């Protein structure tokens, strides 16, 4: 399942995240609150719990985020290590959000690459 999800994503490396933000990508941190409290926040990222991600990003949903203006938004989903985020990004693509993707290695890769302050 994970392999199929990743096969259709144009996954970003941690080093590509600041550039994605500069071009208007929306970072979405789906880590649970307890995990964010321990690991830290991601500057510039929206926090959306995984269990509500689809209807918050779906532009046709009454519960959509203000950023969910159309199907062309570049959603960059981030979890702790890049596993849950791959499945979540694939679920968004299933909704027609074709530019949804995630970050290889997740939050830990962002920390290791030292790019959180650049975001």
From TrEMBL:
User: Domain named Rhodanese: which ranges?
Assistant: 21-119
Which PROSITE patterns would you find in this protein's record? RHODANESE_3
Q: Which residues form a coiled coil?
A: none
Q: Which InterPro entries match?
A: Rhodanese-like_dom, Rhodanese-like_dom_sf
Put simply, this protein is called: Rhodanese domain-containing protein
């Amino acid at each position: 399942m994970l392999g199929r999800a990743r096969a259709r994503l144009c996954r970003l490396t941690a080093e590509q995240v600041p550039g994605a933000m500069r071009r208007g990508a929306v970072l979405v941190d789906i880590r649970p609150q307890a995990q964010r409290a321990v690991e830290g926040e991601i500057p510039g990222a929206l926090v959306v719990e995984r269990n509500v991600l689809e209807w918050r990003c779906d532009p046709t949903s009454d519960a959509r985020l203000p950023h969910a203006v159309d199907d062309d938004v570049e959603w960059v989903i981030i979890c702790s290590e890049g596993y849950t985020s791959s499945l979540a990004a694939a679920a968004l693509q299933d909704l027609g959000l074709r530019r949804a993707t995630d970050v290889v290695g997740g939050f830990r890769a962002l920390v290791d690459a030292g790019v959180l302050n650049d975001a």
